[in-house]
Write the structure tokens for this entry.
Amino acid sequence: MIIRHIKLCILGIFTLAPITSSAQDLIARQAPIDRKLRIADSVALQRLIERQNHFELQGESVYPEEWNNLFTRNYNVEIPDSFRIDLRGFCMPTPSRRITSNFGYRPAFRRQHEGLDIKVYIGDTIRAAFDGKVRIVKYDRGGYGKYILIRHPNGLETLYGHLSKQIVEEDQEVKAGDPIGLGGNTGRSFGSHLHFETRFLGKPLNPVLMFDFPNQDVTSDFYVFRKDTYREESRMASRNTNSQKNDTEENKPDAGNTFSGHFYKVKAGETLSSISDKLGLTVDQLCQTNRINKKSKIRPGQVLRY
């Protein structure tokens, strides 16, 4: 009986040996693959971190090193000749599509209106346009009322005015789409609305150059700030918006397309050749104005100058 048990044990050991050896071989063969996957994941993660850090530094590097919660627009820095602002990852600050007052000079008040007024009602949710860090949360009785200013990694600062309530604090980090306040009628306001500004180094840029409120989208993936032309671009964009509000569909050159003034928004399926024909230009002229070449790919929603 004892001898039988010993034989069974010995038989079991020899039976399991090939399985254990086979399993070890499988683990040994799989180990290099696992290491390669871990290395690949680490490299991909590192590249993602590097891109994010570069993106953040690109926007932050143009601002003074000292962070302050005092001044809305005063920067003692040299304005770069050009700067590309990344508009991807945006969120519309409000689903409202109605612009009640445009960017530009107001004869009635004899002063510049440095943002857009969008119709909202008291209590409507207002959201951050991009990821960023809240720099100012204040009350300006004779102007913005309750307002918030956020600095974004893409170089922009956005301002949200006439709020009824602010629900973020200074130095708080926010993500695009995070609720930051509620629509209101505070400060120098004659009805509930959102006063929305986009600024670069304190310089007011017409939000229409970047945000298409009627279509709840951005005008393109990027906007290039140019020191020598940004004022004229802002003025022209305001004139275009005003003319579009006054025009009927029959009076527009091509219903559904926007190419009044000096800007043209690309529609799906269009090419440089078809756009140049509509505008009465050569492809070379269109390319030269937009600093692109004939082989450049254009995308729906992209804005071209002419």
Remarks:
- Confidence is low (pLDDT under 50) at residues 50-57, 246-261.
- The first helix runs from residue 2 to 60.
- The chain is about 30% helix and 25% strand.
